[in-house]
Structure formats: structure tokens, C-alpha cells
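Standup notes, protein team

Yesterday: finished cleaning the Amblyomma cajennense set.
Today: glutathione transferase structure.
Blockers: none.

Input for glutathione transferase:
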Amino acid sequence: MATPTVGYTSARGLAQSIRNLLVYKGVHFQDKRYEFGPAPAYEKQGWAADRASLGLAFPNLPYYIEGDVRLTQTLAILRYLGKKHGLDARTERDAMELSLLEQQAHDLQWLLVLTSMNPNTTQARESHEKKLAESLNQWQKHLKTRKWALGDSLTYVDFLLYEAFDWNRHYAPGMFEGRPEILDYLKRFEELPKLKEYFASDKYTKWPIMAPYMFWGH
């Protein structure tokens, strides 16, 4: 069986949910990192050559290669891995809910990506924290009766949601105070088999979260 490759930059970024899922399932994979070059271009060193030679239909980062499987786009990769490793919905009704939860987690993650692109950092933070409070209120209510996003069973969406929560916890730690449901969720995830050891190892990149040309996260 071919060893999978996850390709991304040297930042934690949009590939970390994929890395975490593979680690949790005990999958040995190549963690291909493209280092950023110097300012102002911050070119991803080696990516220009690879993007033309890897056989990707829509070259982008992150990418996932496993034999004939060649995927880009974080959500597409997570969906594939969820089905492959038993971390997907088991009923049609659960699949419907999981697709909604996926989009909500994705929105929360991208809320911070877009905020980090804004050069007006003060205005960006004010707007972000207002939207973040609304989102956290919804997730807090949702998790009151659920161990994981969908219920008692861990799914691929939890790997996306953990990243969305943890990024925002770095950005605005005070927003998570008094939210035991979310904090307990984060703790449960961090203590999952294999992930606890991974997070404590030098293989894990906690920081930087974003690329060096962003206004936060590096």
C-alpha cells in the first residue's frame, strides 16, 4: 500500500485537520512542507515545480496523494478520509446533519482566515469578536447534549471543528471563558489516543497558524 502524502506549507493552516485525522487513525504518511521564502513574495519553495508534476486536477495546497487518489481542497480530502476510515455518517439523517455541521465548522475557521487578511487589525478584531460570540453561543448550545459534533461518535467534522475552535482560542482566549461545553470538547479531543502524544511531540506544529504575509497568526 502506498504511503499517503499530505502537502502544505510550513504553517499549521488548512492541512492540520487532515494531519490530525491521519495520526488518530494510525496512518503513516509523508508530511510534505513547503517553506516560505523571504519577503515580500514569500514564495512557497519547491511548490511551483511540484504543482506542475504531481498530476493534480486542480493544483492547490493542501493536497493529498495516495496511489491513484490525488485530491486538493481541505473539505474534499476530509470527506474522503472520513469515508475511508469510518469517520463518516452512518445514516441518511446523520449525513444530512453532518453536512450542515461541516459547513458551520468551515465558516468558523474561515472567519479567522478572513480576519487575518485585514490590515485594519483593530476594526477586524471588533468585527470578528462580535461574529465569534454568536457562533460560540450556537456551538455551546449544540454541545450541551453531545460528546462530539454529531453525537456520541467521532467524525471527520470534529477534526475540522477542533482546528476552528483552537485557532480562535489563540486569537481571542477570553471569548472561551465561561463556556465549559466547548472547553470540555477541546480537552476531550486533545486527549484522544495517539493525538495526545502527537500534540506533545516535535512533529506537531502548533504555531504559526497562518502564513507570514497575514496580519495575525505567525
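Follow-up from PR in the comments: Residues 92-192 form a domain with the Glutathione S-transferase Yfyf (Class Pi); Chain A, domain 2 fold (CATH 1.20.1050.10).
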